Amino acid sequence: MTPRTTRIPADERREQILDAATAVFGEYGYVAATTDRVARAAGISQPYVVRLFGTKEQLFVETLRHTLGRLLATFRGALPEAVPEGDVEVERLLGAAYVRLVEDRGVLLTLMHGFLMGSDPVIGPVARRGFLQVFRMLRDEARFSPEQVHRFLADGMLINTLLASGLGLAAKGDPDAAQLLDCTTSADVLDALERASA
C-alpha cells in the first residue's frame, strides 16, 4: 500500500509560494527572478505558480502586497493596547519591530524593488498605495505627529539603504563607514547590521 500524501490547503500553499517569491525577488530583483526560480524555491511546479498567479508581473504585485501586509501586521503587533498621541516609546517599539522584520533580506529587498519600480504602470500604483497605507497607519493608529512620521519614514529609508548595501561589512574595515553607522543608527540597527553581515 502506498502512503497517502498530505494535501496542503490552497491558502497555505499560496502563502508558501508568496514567501518563496519574497526570497527570490529579494535575491534576484524583478528582472532576473523567474516563475521557475520561485517554483523551485517553493518546492512545486512552475506551471502551478503560473496557474495560480499568471504572469511574473502579477506574481510580483501579489508578493509586494503580501510583503506590505507583513509590514503593517508587524507594526500593528508592536503597538501597545492604548496608544498615546505622539509617544516616542511607540516610535521606538515600531522601529525595533521594523528592524527585526527587514533582517529578512527578502522582505527588505522586495519592498525596495517595489518602491524603485514606481514608474511602472502596474507595479508603481501598488507600491504607492502600500506606502500610503504605512503613512496612514503611523498617523492614525500609532498616532504619530507629522514630525514623527517624517523622522520614522526617513530613518526607515536610511536603515533600508544601510542594510541593503551591506554597510555593516564595510564598517569593519573602513573608519568612515563605521563613523556613518555610529552617527546615524541606534543600537537596535547596529545589532541588525552586525547580524546581517555575519
How is this structure best described in words?
The chain has 198 residues and is mainly α. It has a domain at 56-165. It has 11 helices and no strands. The protein has helices spanning 10-32, 35-42, 46-53, 56-78, 88-102, 105-116, 123-141, 146-165, 167-171, 175-184, 187-197. Helix 1 crosses helix 2 (35-42), helix 1 crosses helix 4 and helix 4 (56-78) runs parallel beside helix 7. The longest helix is centred in the N-terminal third of the chain and has 23 residues, at 10-32. The chain is globular and about 50 Å long. The mean pLDDT is 90.
Our estimate of the beta-strand percent is under 5%
Number of strands: 0
Q: Biggest β-sheet, characterized?
A: none
The low-pLDDT segments are none
Mean pLDDT: 90
Instruction: Work out the helix count.
Output: 11
Q: What helical percentage do the residues reach? A: over 70%
Helix and strand element order = HHHHHHHHHHH
User: Radius of gyration, Cα only, in angstroms?
Assistant: 19 Å
Shape: globular
**Structural class, from secondary structure content?**
mainly alpha
End-to-end distance, in Å? 48 Å
Organism: Agromyces aurantiacus
Protein name: TetR/AcrR family transcriptional regulator
Keywords: DNA-binding
DNA-binding region: 34-53
